[in-house]
Amino acid sequence: MRKLVLLALVGLGAQLVDGSLGMAYGVTSTTLLLAIGTNPAAASATVHLAEIGTTLVSGASHWRFGNVDWPVVLKIGIPGAVGAFAGATFLSGLSTETAAPVMAIILLTLGVYILVRFTAFGLRRDQLGKPLRKRFLGPLGVVAGFVDATGGGGWGPVGTPAILASGRLEPRKTVGSIDTSEFLIAVAASLGFLVGIGSEDIDFGWVAALLAGGVIAAPIAAWLVRHVPPRVLGSAVGGIIILTNTRSLLRSDWIDAPDGVRYAFYAVIYAVWAAALAYSIRRHLAEREAERPEPGGAPAAAVTGDTPPEADKAAAPSA
């Protein structure tokens, strides 16, 4: 019972992050399942089955708050579903001894990407309104879907920064569109895992616990996306993912590092993580200060950084 409550809390926290940042539900949840000894394919299958429900509720909530660009959802979601099914069947064919370190490497890479991307660069806003083309979204969807299924997460970490980096879709609609299209990826990956490994290795009680927490958090996250600074949240989540998966990798059969080596790695990660969080907070506060209007004047236009709540309110359609 205690484990189910913990999983529900993880599902709630992961969905709060995912719904406000556009990534990290799968990466965070899968990381925890691996940490408690779950088979890699079963862990990814469990998360994707739960995501069928959480992404449905999350997508409806984002739609309600005007955070969804439907052409983008279709152009990236359909190719993403193809990539997710392929990735699920690929992971299902790997042995547990091979799959666990491979998944830890994928998750660790995604964690480093999230930490660096949001700490160092924030969000671009200088090309808003320019169209996103199918020839960009299609291949992006296939790659992101494949990584998502094989890594237990990755749709958001690959898709969200790529679209944000283009600067052509405002941040709240990028997050909302990625979260909404993830429903297609969750369905396709789940089908791939059910074909590849069947259902006997999947604990549906765990699926229900993750789903319950995620469903509670989804509407809150859709609202938070207009208020929480993504830069700070990205740095926090990236550090958690790096630390957890470094631990898994160092303790795997591939490396089996002695205690002294592991503790040295942990110390370095904690130091870098703390510095990244401090830098992100300083940059966010500086950018927010720069965007304040001068006495008798208008605020300066932001080129990078987080989206101020005032701008989101102005951009959101009236209910």
UniProtKB/TrEMBL annotation:
This is Probable membrane transporter protein. Keywords: Cell membrane, Membrane, Transmembrane, Transmembrane helix. It comes from Actinomadura viridis. Belongs to the 4-toluene sulfonate uptake permease (TSUP) (TC 2.A.102) family. It is a multi-pass membrane protein. Residues 289-319 are annotated as: Disordered. Pfam families: TauE. It is found in: Cell membrane; Membrane. GO terms for cellular component: plasma membrane. The keyword Membrane applies. The chain crosses the membrane at residues 40-60, 72-94, 100-123, 181-198, 204-225, 262-281.
